[in-house]
Amino acid sequence: MFIPLSDRVGYVPGGTNIGVIRNDDSHVTLIDSGLNDTIARKVLRSVRDELGSEVVAILNTHGHADHFGANAFVVKRTGCEVWAPAIEATTIQHPVMQPAMLFGGADPMDALRNRFLLAEASPLDGELIAGKQRFMGTDIELVALPGHSPNQMGMLVDGVFFGADVVFPRAAIEKYRLPYLFGLTDHLASLDVALTIIASAVVPGHGPHAESLDELVELNRETIERTLDCIRDVLRTRATSDDICARVFTVLDVPVSDAQGYFLLKPTINAYLAHLDRIGDVLCEIVDKRALWSRR
To answer: What tens digit of pLDDT does each residue of 153-196 get?
Structure first.
């Protein structure tokens, strides 16, 4: 079901929200495409039946499977263009990069080669650059929001801000406790940027739209601070990153029960450690051929 938020802009809600920009009376641009073909069929049907339009382009906010996994299907059905930010574009064209990053840069184990992490490769027509642009006859402001992924971008169109995964909804935080992050330092800066956006409505990548991101930014910051405090407490004694993961997951009651859950969140803990190292709070030493972390 298409939810209009302005004369030209709305979204199709779902596990991942899909933005819809009406370029004219018969053509639309999508912001992200969703996880898989099932989602894509729903979106294409909504665009066709409710708006009487065809998809001419996809603008991806970042290179995670739940946001670009349906690209290839939509392109096959419509012949549309695909645009994405640099770095994210590499993952979209070579999806194995995502599970490989989670698996320490190595050929990922089979448990990580699933549809949630390894999407079908997408064609690419060009790279998006932060700033104000005119695309398919529509004025769009691309806003750099790195952190959840290396070069994630939000998009401001016709007074509606699509925030990608700069914040996660309360339901997701309460369920998973620790949202995935690529870089915490950048993510904290992106939360500040999100608060400066002037919009009549905001659409996060997941969860319902709202008038403002303020409440969700505060909630996500509280989650980050709680995790930082937990890691600092764990590092009263030296520990390996694996030990830190186990203790943090236990204290915060993070539901980790399989390889996918573990390898999705171990890099997140590393992102926290890198940030703490950057601000001078922790020290990493190689002792007896092990990397040990401790508080300074």
So the answer is: 999 999 999 999 999 999 999 999 999 999 999 999 999 999 99
92 burial (CB, 10 Å; 0-12 / 13-18 / 19+) is: buried
Q: What percent of the chain has pLDDT over 90?
A: 100
Asked which of 199, 223, 247 is the last residue of a domain, the reply is: 223
Specify the length of the chain in residues.
296
Contact 47/55 with Cβ under 8 angstroms? Answer: yes
269 is in which domain, residue-wise?
224-295
The model's pTM is: 0.96
| Euclidean distance between CA atoms 91 and 97, whole angstroms | 6
Tell me how far apart the alpha carbons of residues 293 and 285 are, in angstroms, rounded to a whole number: 6
Check whether residue 136 and residue 254 sit in a common domain. no
